[in-house]
């Protein structure tokens, strides 16, 4: 079967919602597969150049994990074309999209007939938390919890602009996790949780000024990771009176600002002049999640 998959990127945490809150955005990983005599991964976009072209490709390795889970030893070989508009190692869920691509590759080639809940469970088990895979799979804003099973709620996220400020340098998730504390005191945990709780309530009410204010108060990860994202505090100072708030996207180093719904591109270009080494992109929420279709390739 020839098929194609389109998977949106995601931002996660949104301040205090560490490893729990995620939002699908309109940058995409696209994959097209057709049966072949040997496994071959072809990178279409420049950002993916240099990635493995055979069975050592990450997408294949995920597909192989899924096959083994269902007791299947061999996956029929394919030629897989992959393109992506998602910057790698920038905190925009690129690994989560690749994980979902691998799951869908196994699903289609092995006729596993996996449902949405099956895919979400497998992806979350692989990633360890649902904050990126859930929105990329389901679309929109997803608030999730994982402990043997995935519990989640989808919420609308509307009437606001999301401006991604993407630096030139990469930041690996492993490095960003290594700076986090192993534990927090009970009192700090209660305080941090209350910030996260009200953040969720603010999303429910679409009270973006409240959410933006709470983003500054996060105690779970941003106080520790900001030293790895040196432009974060500079952006906070510069954008203080211009946006609702801003947060480190995922593990970083991308920073995302919440701004008024009709924030003009001219204003964003003006702001970019003060941080010329960063790419500034106005993004939209993707509400469709992962889409699978028959490929045009014969």
Give a quick rundown of the structure.
With about 300 residues, this protein is α+β, with helices and mostly antiparallel strands.
Can you tell me about this structure?
- The protein has 298 residues and is an alpha+beta fold.
- It contains ten helices and eleven strands.
- The protein has two domains: 163 residues, 2-Layer Sandwich (Ribosomal Protein S5, domain 2), CATH 3.30.230; 123 residues, Alpha-Beta Plaits (2-Layer Sandwich).
- Strands 1, 2, 3, 4, 5, 6 and 11 form a seven-stranded mixed β-sheet that branches. The chain has a four-stranded antiparallel β-sheet with strand order 8-9-7-10.
- The radius of gyration is 19 Å and the shape is globular.
- It holds the Pfam family GHMP_kinases_C.
- This is Homoserine kinase.
- It catalyses: L-homoserine + ATP = O-phospho-L-homoserine + ADP + H(+).
């Amino acid at each position: 079967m020839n098929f194609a998959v389109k998977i949106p990127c995601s931002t996660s945490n949104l301040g205090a919602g560490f490893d729990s809150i995620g939002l699908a955005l309109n940058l995409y990983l696209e994959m097209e597969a057709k049966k072949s005599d040997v496994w071959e991964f072809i990178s279409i976009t420049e950002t993916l150049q240099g990635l493995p072209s055979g069975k050592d490709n990450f997408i294949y390795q995920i597909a192989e994990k899924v096959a083994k889970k269902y007791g299947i030893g061999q996956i029929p070989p394919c030629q897989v074309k992959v393109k992506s508009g998602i910057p790698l190692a920038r905190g925009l869920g690129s690994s989560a999209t690749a994980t979902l691509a691998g799951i869908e590759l196994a699903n289609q080639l092995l006729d596993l007939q996996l449902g949405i809940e099956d895919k979400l469970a497998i992806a979350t088990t692989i990633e360890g938390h649902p904050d990126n895979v859930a929105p990329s799979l389901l679309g929109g804003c997803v608030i999730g919890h994982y402990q043997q099973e995935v519990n989640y709620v989808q919420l609308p996220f509307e009437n606001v602009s999301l401006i991604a400020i993407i630096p030139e340098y990469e930041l690996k998730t492993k490095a960003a996790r290594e700076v986090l504390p192993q534990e927090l005191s009970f009192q700090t945990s209660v305080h941090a949780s209350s910030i996260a709780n009200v953040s969720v309530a603010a999303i429910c009410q679409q009270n973006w000024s409240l959410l933006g204010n709470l983003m500054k108060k996060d105690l779970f990860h941003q106080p520790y990771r900001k030293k790895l994202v040196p432009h974060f505090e500079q952006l906070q100072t510069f954008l203080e009176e211009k946006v609702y708030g801003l947060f480190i996207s995922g593990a970083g180093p991308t920073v995302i600002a919440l701004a008024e719904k009709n924030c003009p591109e001219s204003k964003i270009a003006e702001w970019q002049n003060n941080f010329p080494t960063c790419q500034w992109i106005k993004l939209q929420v993707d509400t469709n999640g992962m889409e699978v279709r028959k490929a045009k390739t014969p």
